[in-house]
Design a protein that fits this description.
Layout: H1 2-16, H2 27-35, H3 42-47, H4 54-57, H5 65-78, H6 83-106, H7 113-122, H8 126-131, H9 133-154, H10 158-169, H11 175-189, H12 196-220, H13 235-250, E1 260-261, E2 265-266, H14 268-301, H15 310-327, H16 342-351, H17 358-382, H18 384-402, E3 411-415, H19 430-437, H20 442-447, E4 454-457, E5 471-474
Parallel strand pairs: 3-4, 3-5
Antiparallel strand pairs: 1-2
Helix pairs in contact: 1-7, 2-5, 6-7, 6-9, 7-16, 9-10, 9-11, 10-11, 10-12, 11-12, 11-15, 14-17, 15-16, 18-19
Keywords: Membrane, Transmembrane, Transmembrane helix
Protein name: Glycosyltransferase RgtA/B/C/D-like domain-containing protein
Length: about 475
């Protein structure tokens, strides 16, 4: 086990080593500021776990463990040095890989658990969770505690399992339903049916989840102005969203969704700019899907009981439960929401291939590896979080060279680069790009340790005038 696991870790490091050099960007700076609102004391630590409405702090969702606590401690210890944060991410991923292996062998009785761990570890679907720090670290923490919960329940340590479930809820709301479904499944797989004691346990899980969801969505709430968080309950859109999450789980690049029009028509710009990648990706994706379909068809034709096994359906249900909170958000489809569900996606796939000839399974693994590797190469050039982190780092270096220090309460005016050619209205000129990469004035506040510092951006003045005496800074974008 450990030799294979070490090899998987080495392959991951070979594919994902740029993660270590990826800087903070966007919501990271905002999360730092939110976390720093609490005093550095035991009382301040306890306050991080309080329930505050969106109107009070401008923060949605209850994720104190891997947002408020983690960002507060990281800034206190390392400031805006991103390397320790990235190191923690990779460490968490490695621990999760190990826990997935133990769970797949112990609870799900999989003889080829290494295949699940391998694809979970190196799959291109991890790009979102590993590079978009603000969206990924909470999901990683939630999976860590959900896996510990399942392993504790498998060993009949119910109290420990329940405590781990509470920790998962303090990490990410995606763990609420998936943790409940997994707990229910573990109780069922233990045999002897659903006893009264197990039924009481499940009621406790359901009650806890219900209370948590009430607090998360009604007490804390979200911004009424953010359209992307408004659920859409239309069958067509829901099926479309589910299809994308399945395709992304397999390794299809997230950017593909931006180039597919209704009726599965491709925007010609996709092949124009990225054709050399998709000439490999599309045929391989088709072959992989056909391979899975053939295997399922074979099992159906032979009347095999494998498709009826509870362990398979438990993994399918946990996968679906993990993405259910976002399945009704067609305007907010993101791969980083998949992290918690990915082990159960790959577990479901390889559960179907348990008794298949080793050579065929080996070929299938090779196809998946090549497919995901090509997808990773494309993501390295196009994924928005990667590019925005590079921009944030570049702008911070520029800012530090122009203004090593600033007076208390300074006002900064970020100008456009006059030589920059705007290629997209959505991205805008350099000041607008800087605004998103640096989260408005948040990065400035954090670097200069001055929460009274104010920043104006040329593209976002909206008729407002810049105060006299503002210090000018031109944002240059490579």
């Amino acid at each position: 086990m450990f030799k294979k696991l070490l090899l998987i870790y080495l392959i991951f490091l070979f594919l994902y080593y740029p993660v270590f050099g990826s800087y903070f960007s966007q919501d990271d700076f905002f999360h730092f500021k939110v976390a720093l609102e609490y005093p550095t004391s035991f009382f301040g630590f306890l306050k991080m776990f309080g329930f505050y409405g969106f109107s009070e702090r401008g923060v949605a969702f209850y994720r104190p463990l891997f947002r408020e606590v983690l960002y507060n401690f990281n800034y206190f210890l390392f400031g805006l040095n991103s390397f320790p944060f990235r190191l923690l991410q990779v460490f968490l991923h490695f621990v999760n890989c190990y826990l997935v292996w133990v769970l797949m062998e112990g609870l799900f009785k999989m003889r080829r658990a290494w295949m699940v761990v391998f694809m979970f570890a190196i799959g291109a679907a991890n790009v979102g969770a590993l590079y978009y720090l603000a969206g990924g670290i909470q999901a990683q923490g939630a999976l860590f505690f959900v896996l510990l919960m399942a392993l504790a329940l498998h060993r009949k340590k119910v109290l420990a399992g329940f405590i781990f479930y509470l920790f998962a809820l303090c990490s990410h709301e995606m763990a609420a339903l998936s943790g409940l479904v997994l707990a229910f499944g573990v109780f069922l797989l233990q045999g002897n049916g659903m006893s009264k004691k197990k039924f009481v346990y499940i009621l406790g899980w359901i009650g806890t989840m219900s209370l948590y969801l009430i607090i998360d969505f009604w007490v804390i709430g979200t911004s009424s102005g953010e359209v992307q968080y408004r659920p859409v309950f239309e069958i067509g859109r829901t099926i479309n969203t589910l299809a994308w999450y399945l395709a992304w789980s397999m390794g299809l690049p997230e950017m593909t969704v931006d180039f597919v029009r209704s009726g599965l028509k491709l925007d010609p710009r996709l092949m124009q700019f990225w054709g050399r990648y998709y000439l490999i990706l599309f045929p391989m994706f088709f072959v992989i899907i056909c391979g899975i379909a053939v295997r399922v068809g074979y099992l159906l034709s032979r009347g095999r009981s494998k498709l009826q096994e509870r362990r398979l359906w438990l993994m399918v249900m946990v996968f679906l439960a993990g993405i259910l909170p976002v399945i009704f958000l067609p305007w907010h489809k993101k791969t980083y929401y998949l992290y918690l569900s990915l082990p159960f996606f790959w577990g479901s796939i390889f559960y179907l291939f348990q008794n298949v000839n080793k050579k065929i399974v080996g070929l299938f693994i090779v196809l998946l590896f090549i497919f995901n590797t090509v997808s990773l190469q494309l993501a390295g050039k196009t994924y928005w979080a990667i590019n925005r982190a590079k921009l944030a780092k570049s702008l911070m270096v520029q800012m530090q060279s122009v203004y090593p220090t600033l007076p208390k309460g300074a006002v900064v005016f970020v100008r456009n680069d006059p030589n920059y050619q705007v290629f997209s209205l959505e991205w805008g000129n350099t000041s607008k790009q800087a605004y998103f990469a640096l989260s408005g004035e948040d990065a400035f506040n954090l670097y200069y340790k001055d929460m009274t510092l104010r920043v104006y951006y040329e593209d976002l003045l909206d008729g407002n005038s810049v105060p006299e005496g503002a210090l000018e800074f031109t944002a240059f974008v490579d």
